Amino acid sequence: ESGFGDSVKASASADFGPSGSEENGETLHTLPKFVAYIRAVLFIAWTSLLSLPLICVMIAVSPFVYLFDRKRRRLNHLVNQVWAWLSILPFFRVKISGRENLPPSTTGAVYVANHQSIMDIFVLFLLGKPFKFVSKIEVFYVPIIGLAMYLTGHVALKRMDGRSQAQTFKQCINLLKEGVSILVFPEGTRSRDGKIKAFKSGAFKMARRGEAPVVPISLDGTSKVMPHGSGFLRFYPGVVNITIHEATQLTTD
Questions:
Q1: When comparing pLDDT for 70 and 100, which is higher?
Q2: Of residues 249, 250, 244, 253, the one with CA closest to residue 7
Q3: How far apart are CA 217 and CA 184, in angstroms?
Q4: pTM for the full model?
Q5: Beta strand pairing call for 214-220 and 239-244
Q6: Which residues contact 195 (CB under 8 A, 6 or more apart)?
Q7: Mean pLDDT lowest for which of 51-55, 130-134, 229-233?
Q8: How are beta strands 26-29 and 20-23 bridged, if at all?
Q9: 10 Å Cβ neighbour count for 45?
Q10: How does 178-195 read in b/e, with b if 16+ C-beta sit within 10 Å?
Q11: 202 with 184: CB under 8 angstroms?
């Protein structure tokens, strides 16, 4: 478990973004804040506009997905991938290395990634591999986004409910055994300072009991393009780097 954290941390610590530099652990952006605020508003408007036709596509194809691909729901995941790619395209670039380490789409795997920003989910859709992620149930009530998550088969969790947590854990193990991949942010929450926190053990226990490989993924740059913090959203230009590390099969929790 610590080995995964070390490999992810080593890769994610490099500064790849051209939009700013690092000094004393803080990112210094050259773009004025008011421009970053405007970019954030434009991003929200653009991705919302894209969501309208794409959610209609997802609704239209859902009967066929349920009939022929009820578990993986690859077609709905593809719509999510297109949605994410078109949303990102005007605002920042994404570079992916280590694609050869991704297991086949028919193999269930636990993808573990560091968590920096709400942009993390967007960029991880670009991997082109269908996966499910666990989200607090409140997100499923958000218009369009919640419906898209439900149609894609993502897993809802009541965070303060111990019974829900146990059921979600069991559901994820069953999905893994059926060849469905799960995305987990083992830190449990987004990092405010960009530093990787200690990993919780749940993702690794899930992989072991689901007899699935663990695929560590390093994200670098999402906290620079959309920093996590209080106040209005800010959106900066830059480059996000995704590094996919070699998969490992665990023998113990």
A1: 100
A2: 244
A3: 10
A4: 0.83
A5: antiparallel
A6: 25
A7: 229-233
A8: antiparallel
A9: 10
A10: eebbbbbbbbeebbeebe
A11: yes
Dihedral sign of CA atoms 221, 223, 243, 21 in order:
positive
Cβ proximity of 121 and 133 under 8 Å:
yes
Q: Stretch 129-136: mean pLDDT, rounded?
A: 90
Q: In this structure, what token pair is assigned to residue 120? A: 């993390």
Residues 6+ apart with CB under 8 A from 83: 47, 50, 51, 54, 125, 148
Give CA 86 to chain center in angstroms: 16
Contacts 24+ apart (CB under 8 A), 74-82: 74/105, 74/130, 76/148, 76/151, 76/152, 76/153, 77/125, 77/130, 77/131, 77/152, 79/54, 79/148, 80/125, 80/148, 80/152, 81/125, 81/126, 81/128, 82/54
Measuring CA to CA, which residue among 91, 80, 70 is closest to residue 178? 70
The amino acid at 73: R
What count of residues does the chain have?
253
Confidence class for position 196, pLDDT limits 50, 70, 90: low
> If you search the block for the tokens 């919780």, which residue do you land on?
200
> Which amino acid would we find at residue 138?
E
Side-chain-side CA neighbours of residue 202 (13 Å): 15
User: HSE on the CB side for 106, CA within 13 Å?
Assistant: 0
